[in-house]
Amino acid sequence: MSWIQVHVSGLPKCNDPSDEEIETLLNARYNLSDNVLLWAGPDTTLIKRDEEGTCRGYAFLAFYSSEGAAIIVDRINESVSSDTEESSQLPPQLRAELSNPKTAKDRKKKGQKDDAKNLHDLRLRRPRRAPIRKHPVITSSDKNRTNMGNKTK
Predict the structure, then answer these.
(1) CATH code at position 40
(2) Domain range enclosing 35
(3) Is residue 128 situated within a structural domain?
(4) Contacts with 73 (C-beta within 8 Å, 6 or more apart), sequence order
(5) Is residue 73 part of a domain?
(6) Where exactly are the transmembrane stretches of this chain (predicted)?
(7) Can you say whether residue 149 is alpha, beta or left, with left for phi > 0 and alpha for psi between -120 and 50 degrees?
(8) In the chain, how many domains are there?
(9) Which 3-state string (H, E, C) describes the chain?
(10) Strand pairing report for 95-98 and 4-9
C-alpha cells in the first residue's frame, strides 16, 4: 500500500526530544490518530537528524490517504498552540506541506547530464566506412568469389 508524506518544518534543532516524544507531541497537538486522517500510525514518523543525532528541524508524517494528509496540513498551518507545556517541547508555529516524491529523472546521479537539455554538447559520430580487407578479393570469370587473393588452386 502506498502512502502520502507530509513535510513538517519548524521543529527544534536539538537532541532533547526523542523521535517517539516528538511523534507523541504531534499526535497530542494535532490529533493524528483521528480515523478520518488515516495516519500510518506510531513509529512511521521520520524525523531527520544529522550525524551527531541533532534534529535538523523537519520531519515526515506518513498517511494512507491524500485527503487525510491535506486535512493535517491545514490543521498544522492554521493552528497556534496555546499550551505552554507543549510549546516548551515543540515550537508554537510549525509549517507543513505535502511532500512531493522524487521522480526517476530527479534521482539521477549528480554527474550525469540530461541529454534532452544538452543537445548542443552532444558530439555526433561519423558513419563508419566499409571495412578494408587485408587481402584483395578476386572474382573469377564465372563471378564466384574465391577470397584467395591472387593465389591459384
Answers:
(1) 3.30.70.330
(2) 4-98
(3) no
(4) 6, 96, 97, 98
(5) yes
(6) none
(7) left
(8) 1
(9) CCCEEEEEECCCCCCCCCHHHHHHHHHHHHCCCCCCCCECCCCCCEEEECCCCCEEEEEEEEECCHHHHHHHHHHHHHCCCCCHHHHHHCCCCCEEEECCCCCCCCCCCCCCCCCCCCHHHCCCCCCCCCCCCCCCCCECCCCCECCCCCCCC
(10) antiparallel
Cell of 100: 512531493
- Is 6 in contact with 60 (CB distance < 8 Å)? yes
Q: Is residue 129 in a domain?
A: no
CB 3 within 8 A of CB 63: yes
On whether the CB atoms of residues 21 and 59 are closer than 8 A, the answer is no
CA pair distance 8, 20, nearest whole angstrom = 15
CA distances to 111, 113, 121, 122 from 108, in Å = 8, 9, 19, 19
Question: What is the grid cell recorded at 39?
Answer: 495516519
pLDDT per residue as tens digits for the range 113-143: 555 565 666 667 777 788 777 766 666 677 7
C-alpha cell at 40: 500510518
More confident residue, 53 or 83: 53
